[in-house]
Amino acid sequence: MDTEKILKAGKIASEVKKYARTIVKPGISLYEIAEKIEEKIKEKGGKPAFPVNLSIDNIAAHYTPSNEDKTTARGLLKIDLGVHVDGWIADTAFSIDLENNEENKKLIEASEKALQNALKIAKMNCSLNEIGKTISNAIESSGFSPIINLSGHGMEKYQLHTGITIPNIDDNKNIKLKEGLYAIEPFATTGSGRVHDGKSSGIYELKNEKNVRSPIAREILEFIIKEYGTLPFCSRNLIKKFGTKALFGLKQLESNGNLHSYAQLVEIPSSKVSQAEETILILKDKVIVTTL
Ligand code: MN
Ligand code: MN
After folding, report:
1. Is 80 a catalytic residue?
2. Which of the following is catalytic: 57, 153, 267, 278?
3. pLDDT tier, 71 (very low <50, low <70, confident <90, very high otherwise)
4. In the Cβ-directed half-sphere of 218, how many Cα atoms lie within 13 Å?
């Protein structure tokens, strides 16, 4: 692990999070928010580790605006951003109430409280289900439900999800937290406590590098390999480089089986979801919250 780069990515993420709070107002387009955040990350010497997720109300995660998206900021908005420095990732999120609604505010407090409580106990050899229990206790005592099929995760160089999950409930698995880089991310909801796959999000990830016939698709594939590697990206990013023909190339790559396409993660209609997330570096003798 490269501690210096991990801390640098965390510091950039923390600064960009503060910046994001100054630009997000009701009525600003999600497109403008996403572009400004991703630009700010680059300005500060990092790269986006994934497209900024801007998910409203019952969409829990994986919404990023496309070029044509006219959606404006409203309701209960989750802002989830990632930074990497040479592949070392910081993943952090917060929620904002844009309609001055009491229930939204309580939901936001619930996921933040759950995160703060989890951060207090997360250390070397702590059980992951203890963290999960702490998270669900905080959310349930506020009168809401944790989303049980979303979880925190281990991270490695150029790898956003290692396969280690930090549950948002007590899953009865007594796995110990080891040295490494992790994201903890409680979600609180007025809904069912489970998300399902919604519409396609326009967020993709490279699955394999197999040959594709169309020249533009091949050109885009090479760019994806070089620029994103195994990290997620979206059409906005490619249109900047290739113009709108990127959309044609993306379609080709998708049907050729080169890409994994993410779905939006959605709670039941009329429900609300809040999220809070920080990245932690667990070392033998200490824990650093890199994104504070
Ligand atoms: Mn995140
Ligand atoms: Mn995450």
Report:
1. yes
2. 153
3. very high
4. 5
75 and 173, same domain (yes or no): yes
Is 153 annotated as catalytic?
yes
277 as an active site residue: the answer is yes
> Ligand 1 centre and the CA of 216: distance in Å?
31
CA of 215 to the centre of ligand 1 (A): 34
Q: CATH number, domain at 166?
A: 3.90.230.10
Mean pLDDT of 233-242: 95
Distance of CA 238 to the CA centre of its chain: 19
Ligand 2 centroid to Cα of residue 123, in Å, is 18
Q: How many domains does the chain have?
A: 2
Q: What is the pLDDT of residue 14?
A: 98
For residues 243-267, average pLDDT: 96
- In the set 38, 57, 80, 112, the catalytic residue is 80
Q: Which helix (H) or strand (E) holds 263?
A: strand 259-266
- Secondary structure of 194-243 in HEC code, one letter for each residue: CCEEEEEEEEEEECCCCCCCCHHHHHHHHHHHHHCCCCCEEHHHHHHHHC
Distance CA 140, CA 150 (A): 16
Phi, psi of 45 (to 5 degrees): 95, 15
Can 254 be counted among the known catalytic residues?
Answer: no
Is 285 found in the same domain as 209?
Answer: no
Catalytic position from the list 32, 156, 161, 205 = 161
Q: Are residues 221 and 280 in the same domain?
A: no
Instruction: Give the per-residue pLDDT at 273.
Output: 98
Residue 65 belongs to domain spanning: 3-195+267-289
Q: What's the 242 CA to ligand 1 centre distance in angstroms?
A: 27
